[in-house]
Amino acid sequence: MTAPLLTSLAASGGDRPDALTVAGHRLSREELLGAAGAVAARIAGAPAVAVHATATAETVVAVVGALLAGVPVVPVPPDSGPAERDHILRDSGAALLLAGAGAGAGAAAEAAEVPVETVRVDPSERAEWTKSEPAPESTAFILYTSGTTGAPKGVLISRRAVAADLDALADAWAWTAGDTLVHGLPLFHVHGLVLGVLGALRTGSRLVHTGRPTAAAYAAAGGSLYFGVPTVWNRVVQDPDSARALSGARLLVSGSAPLPAPVFRELERLTGQRPVERYGMTETLITVSTRADGERRPGSVGTPLPGIRTRIAAEEGAGIGELQLTGPTLFDGYLGRPEATSGSYTEDGWFRTGDIATVEPDGFHRIVGRASTDMIKSGGYRIGAGEIENALLDHPAVREAAVVGAPHDDLGQQIVAYVVADGVTGQALIDFVAAQLSVHKRPRVVRFLEALPRNAMGKPQKKLLPPA
Ligand code: MLC
Ligand code: AMP
C-alpha cells in the first residue's frame, strides 16, 4: 500500500530551520506547512489552480498549498509568452493564478487574454489546515507538455502516481531523511518539481534549490544527492574545481535526456563517482533507473523501477524498437483529449513512449533515440517542432517553416528553424517566437531557404534539409 502523498510532510519531528532552502530563502517544514495551509484555505474548492512557477520558495508554498487543498496544480513557466500562457490557462480551466509578490505575474496576467485572478503567496503567513488528504486517485498536477504537433497538452497526474514514483525512486537511490538534495532545475516540470521538491518532502531529506543549476552553486551547496540534466553535468565537468567539490556526495543523478558517455567518464574522473542515470517522461514519471546499490554504465538507464513493466515493440529477433510501459506511475490521460490519450496506448494497454530502446541480456535498458524527429530535447526541455513551426508561420513574412533539433555538444540538441521568408532577419524571428512561447523554445539558428525540400506528394522532407 502506498501511503498518501503528503503524509510524511506533516511529520515534523526533528524539524530544522533550513529543511528547505530555495534560492536563498530558508523554511522549516512547519513554516512550509503553515504557509501552505494559508494558501489551501484561500483556494479550496477551485477546479484547478495555475502557479507562476518561478524557482522560489513562493512556488513551493503554492504547490504544497494546492496539494493540501486537493486542487490540481497547473505550473506555468514564468517566462512563457502570452500565446503559451493563454493556452495553458484556457485549456486547464484554472481561474486562479498563485504567485509571489513581485514575481512579475501581475503584469503577465494583465497582458493575457484569458481572465485570471492572481492570488498572492506569502511564505511568512501561517494557517493550520486540518482537512484530511484527498483521495489518491485525484489529480495532483496538470503538466503541459509538447507533442510533435500542435499546442502543448495537459498531462493528468494523480496523487497515487506521484507517491508511487517517489517511493520507487527512494528504493532505487536509497534516498532517506539523512540526505540533502541539491538541484537548481525549473519548478514546472517533473524533474525539478515532482522529484526535486515533492521527493525531498516525502523522503524527509533537506532540499537546497540553488536558483539556477550552475556548477559553482552545486559545488557550494554541500549536498549528498544531486540532480541535473545532462547539460548541467556537462557544465559541471567544464569547471573541474566545482566538479571535484562534489566528490563527497553520495549520488549524482542525471536524467531528462541522454547523458553523453564522455560526460559520464569526466564526472567519474573528477568526482570518483559513476553517475546514476534514470529515464522518464511527463506521462509516465520516472520508470527506469540504475541503482545506488547497483552497477552504472555509460549510455544505460538501468532497470525498471519496482512496479514498472517494460517491453520493446520490435520485429521478432531485432531487439530494438519502441519502449512500452505499464505500471502505477502512469498518467490518467491528456486533459480533454480522449483521442490523443487512446492513441498513446497499444491495443493491449501498454503506454507507447515514442522512445527507441534496447535491453541488454542482464536487463539494462539503453535509450537509443526517438521514433519522431519532431520531438526535440534541448537542455532537457521537451519541445515539439510543430509548435515552433506554427509560431513562425504566425509571422506575416514567413511562408514556410521547418524546425529540427540539430546535435549540440552542450544542449544535446539545439533548435534550428529553416524558413522561406522575405524582408525579415533571423534575429527578428527568434525574438518573435520568444515573445509568444517560453524562452527555451526560441530557435538558436535560423536558416533562410528558397523553398523547403519536398517529396513528389508535396510533403516537406526534413531529412533533406541542408546542415545547420
Ligand atoms: C537562450 N538564450 C538565447 C537563446 N536561447 N539567446 C539568444 N537566442 C536564443 N535562441 C539565452 C538564454 O536566455 C540565456 O540568457 C543564455 O542564452 C544561455 O542560455 P542556455 O544555453 O539555454 O543556458 P541556460 O539558460 O543556462 O539553460 C541551461 C539549463 C536549462 C540547463 C539551465 O536548459 C534548464 O534549466 N534545463 C532543464 C530542463 C528540465 O528541467 N527538463 C526536465 C523536463 S521533465 P541569460 O541572460 O538568461 O543567461 C523530464 C522528465 C525526466 O524530462 O525524465 O526528467
Ligand atoms: P519530458 O516529457 O519532458 O519528461 O520528456 C520525456 C523524454 O525525455 C523521453 O521521452 C525521452 O525522450 C527523454 N529522456 C528522459 N530521460 C532520458 C534519459 N535518461 N535518456 C534518454 N532520454 C531521456
Task: Note down, in words, how this protein is organized.
This protein is α/β, with parallel strands linked by helices and 468 residues long. Among the domains are: 164 residues, Rossmann fold (3-Layer(aba) Sandwich), CATH 3.40.50; 90 residues, GMP Synthetase, Chain A, domain 3 (2-Layer Sandwich), CATH 3.30.300.30. Helix content is 29%, strand content 27%. It has a nine-stranded mixed sheet with strand order 2-1-10-9-11-12-13-14-15. Strand 1 and strand 2 form a beta hairpin. Helix 2 crosses helix 3, helix 6 packs across helix 7 and helix 9 crosses helix 11. It is globular. Malonyl-coenzyme A binds next to helix 7, helix 9 and strand 13.
Topology at a glance:
Layout: H1 7-10, E1 20-22, E2 25-27, H2 29-43, E3 49-52, H3 57-69, E4 73-76, H4 82-92, E5 96-100, H5 105-111, E6 117-121, E7 139-145, E8 153-158, H6 159-173, E9 180-183, H7 190-203, E10 206-209, H8 215-221, E11 225-228, H9 230-237, H10 240-244, E12 251-254, H11 261-271, E13 276-281, E14 285-289, E15 303-304, E16 309-313, E17 320-326, H12 338-343, E18 351-359, E19 365-370, E20 375-378, E21 381-384, H13 385-393, E22 398-408, E23 412-421, H14 426-436, E24 445-448
Parallel strand pairs: 1-10, 3-4, 3-5, 5-6, 9-10, 9-11, 11-12, 12-13, 23-24
Antiparallel strand pairs: 1-2, 7-8, 13-14, 14-15, 16-17, 17-18, 18-19, 20-21, 22-23
Helix pairs in contact: 2-3, 6-7, 9-11
The structure holds malonyl-coenzyme A and adenosine monophosphate.
Adenosine monophosphate binds at residues 145, 190, 255-258, 277-282, 301, 353, 355, 367, 370, 377, 382.
